[in-house]
Predict the 3D structure of the following.
Amino acid sequence: MDYKVHIDPGKEDCYFQYANPGATFYVSFQVVRGGDGMAGFAVRHPSGQIVHPYQWKANSEYQDQNSMGGYYSVCIDNQFSRFAAKLVNIYITVVRYDMWDKYAKELDALNMNMENFTTTIVGVERNINEMLQYQHHSRGREAWDFNLLQDNNSYVVRWSIIQIIVVMATTAVQVYFVRKLFDVKSGGGSGRSRI
């Protein structure tokens, strides 16, 4: 599961994922945009123990190869940032390799020797899951880079417009004063007229 979540400033959001006994639990997060680009990330084991303590980072990950089963708590903390909201990409997956073993036992019960095939399929599935994790990291990095480019572009455009306005205002003021400098006053003299 791949989520993009918005964390308000000074807030903490927690998400829960069930993992079967013996399954592999994997979670990673990456701050895509907002503030200093970092947030706190922690994982709590179904037993209640914090297995990945809070660390203020741009990205982090946690993996439990052999889960005892239960609900994992994944929390993202933005309490250190009082003014900037964060957009965070979360990737959570639970893989049950024990189901492959159950499948192999069923095949043995049918007197079919598929051990080589099953081992190959398990290896392929593990490789696919590793590729999915890599793709998730790549997508997160791409989203982070894209948002950085957008922020830089808006910054450059904003300051360019401000500079254009300043140059135009300066030009108008200079033209006004140069015209005033050469402005010749015409009017009647103040001399006395003789009769």
